[in-house]
UniProtKB/TrEMBL annotation:
GO cellular component: Bam protein complex
Pfam families with a match to the protein in the record: BamE
Keyword Endoplasmic reticulum applies: no
BP terms from Gene Ontology: Gram-negative-bacterium-type cell outer membrane assembly; protein insertion into membrane
Protein name, UniProt field: Outer membrane protein assembly factor BamE domain-containing protein
Swiss-Prot/TrEMBL keywords: Cell outer membrane, Membrane, Signal
Any one Gene Ontology molecular-function term assigned to this protein's record: protein-macromolecule adaptor activity
Domain Outer membrane protein assembly factor BamE: 22-96
PANTHER family the UniProt entry points to: OUTER MEMBRANE PROTEIN ASSEMBLY FACTOR BAME
Length: 134
């Protein structure tokens, strides 16, 4: 029994698995994307983009790769995140490509306060009194 317990303690890395979430961006594909290429060629090399944006006649395609460490207890930690952005001009040709990492991101604090609306935030006692007409 002691041998089984010690065997579980010998490899602490076995409790952590590494996986990729989202699109896996191969270096060979990055090298093939150059200014002037068509959207069809980019789609052939990289596949259909999971995220797109269109503004003012210009289009951007985003491919996101997130590398995670997952523990045996289900906790995920992000090792790295890479975003490949391919920007197209009005004619549908590659204008430029950019690769962004976690260090390029900005942390946004989410506002947790709520604006109460009429009838939404009633307590249990208020609900009981309201149901009997008080």
């Amino acid at each position: 029994m002691l041998a089984v317990a010690l065997a579980g303690c010998t490899a602490s890395n076995s409790l952590v698995t590494q996986r990729t979430q989202g699109y896996e961006i191969p270096e060979s594909a990055l090298a093939q994307i150059r200014p002037g290429q068509s959207q069809d060629l980019v789609r052939t090399v990289l596949g259909t983009p999971p995220l797109t944006n269109e503004f003012g006649g210009q289009t951007a395609w985003y491919y996101v790769e997130t590398k995670l460490n997952t523990t045996a207890f289900g906790l995920n930690t992000i090792r790295s995140r890479t975003v490949l952005a391919v920007y197209f001009d009005e004619r549908g040709r590659v204008r430029e490509r950019a690769v962004y990492g976690l260090e390029d991101g900005v942390v946004i604090n989410m506002e947790t306060r709520r604006t109460p609306s009429f009838g939404e935030d009633r307590t249990f006692i208020q609900s009981i009194l309201g149901s009997i007409g008080l």
